[in-house]
Amino acid sequence: MANGVITALPAVDAQEQPHLKRVLGRWDLVLLFVVAVFNLNVVPSIAANGGITVWLWIISLLLFFWPQGIAVIELAHRYPGEGGVYLWAKEVFGDFHGFLSGWCYWTNNMMYVPTIMLYFVGVSVFSLGPAHAGLADSKSFALTASLALLAILVVLNIVGLGVGKWINNIGG
């Protein structure tokens, strides 16, 4: 608003529309949710706490996951484009907050991904049988296997979600 004149926001340019092809269907997203939430990390706590955990899962579904999903759908419709949380924060709060949200997301994953890699390698060793259980304590094996797994996942991400989504679908 300048000198009492209200100016309209610029229309979304055709070039600002998302360029990525949507390859994840509803079933892919359901399986992604299953893999992200119901994984081997939670089995011991579910076993230790018994039936009450079923109610806690239902409560978390109703009070967290559905509202979060609704918020993501609303933000994706309101601010179409590539970038997710970075784009939404940038559009609403400005460049610095967009950078900050993207940076926080990146640094969070920088710590999370290696942890998951090491966990996966450590648990997977036991599927090879008791003769290979000693590999779980080998730091060099854990490092080598984690880096190999990371390289495979990087290649799958470069190839695209059309192929990479099957990792989650198989895990789900």
Quick structural overview:
This protein is an all-alpha fold.
Folded structure, characterized:
- By secondary structure, the protein is mostly helical.
- The protein folds into two domains: 49-78; 82-172, no CATH class.
- Helix content is 68%, strand content 0%.
- The protein is built from seven helices and no strands.
- The protein has helices at residues 26-37, 43-49, 52-78, 85-93, 95-124, 139-159, 161-171.
- Helix 1 crosses helix 7, helix 5 packs across helix 6 (139-159) and helix 6 (139-159) crosses helix 7.
- The model has no long low-confidence stretch (mean pLDDT 81).
Name a few traits of the molecule.
transmembrane, 68% helix, mainly alpha, 2 domains, AA/rel_permease1, single chain, 172 residues, Amino acid permease
Low-confidence stretches: none
* Helix-strand category: mainly alpha
The proportion of residues in beta strands is under 5%
In this structure, how is the largest beta sheet organized?
none
Radius of gyration: 21 Å
Strand segment count: 0
Number of domains: 2
Q: Mean pLDDT score, rounded?
A: 81
What's the shape?
globular
Task: Tell me roughly what share of residues is in helical segments.
Answer: 55-70%
Distance between the termini: 51 Å
- Contiguous helical run count: 7
Order of helices and strands: HHHHHHH
